[in-house]
Design a protein that fits this description.
Elements: H1 11-21, E1 28-30, H2 39-49, E2 55-59, H3 64-72, E3 78-80, H4 88-96, H5 104-117, H6 119-127, H7 130-140, H8 145-152, H9 156-170, H10 175-184
Length: 188
């Protein structure tokens, strides 16, 4: 299959491209240094409007806080520009085959994070997106899917998509199970 890229030089332009034809887009590569917005904000917007869309960061920034922020907002991979160990083409192939590529220079950070903070902290920081944590909190307050959609300002289908992702990540099949597991793992 051939890939026809759509290019955007700003967050605003990227959102216009997605609004016009998100269904035909397999992968979004996001740079964190955009002229009109922060790439992490763009990721958050993309994942709230198109939760199943696969996004990967390709950035000059390898700062730990930026990496965590991007991963927390739903990036499925993070490639530092100029990384000699993995090319953008290789990373794209990995993402499209279901693997989450991360520049090797960043793996030391994740190992340190795991050693210093423990597995529970790592799960909390990297496992769930901001929207999934918000949904989990609303579930813990006893809200229905419909009410969650209203409170989050999204459609019911978006809440259902976030719910499927949340259940998959937590290995559960209901909102009650999700809340109980999250409380057991100190995610709530």
């Amino acid at each position: 299959t051939s890939i026809t890229p759509s290019l955007a030089s700003s967050a605003k332009q990227a959102l216009r491209v997605l609004e016009a034809d998100a269904r035909s887009i397999s992968l979004v590569l996001v740079d964190l240094g955009l002229p009109d917005d922060d790439g992490v904000n763009l990721l958050k917007t993309i994942k709230s409007q198109w939760p199943t869309l696969v996004c990967m960061v390709v950035s000059t920034s390898g700062e730990r806080e930026r990496v965590l922020a991007a991963m927390s907002e739903g990036a499925c991979g993070y490639l530092v520009k100029g990384d000699v160990n993995i090319s953008i083409a290789q990373a794209v192939d990995l993402v499209l085959s279901g693997v989450n590529p991360i520049s090797p220079e960043l793996t030391t950070y994740f190992i340190d994070l795991l050693r210093n903070r423990g597995i529970d902290s790592l799960k909390k920081e990297l496992g769930l997106t901001g929207r999934e944590r918000e949904l989990l909190s609303l579930f813990s307050s006893g809200h229905s899917y419909k009410r969650c959609a209203e409170l989050m300002g999204v459609s019911l289908s978006t809440v259902q998509s976030h719910t499927r992702n949340l259940y998959r990540k937590l290995g559960v099949r209901s909102s009650l199970q999700a809340v109980l597991k999250a409380k057991g793992e100190r995610l709530l």
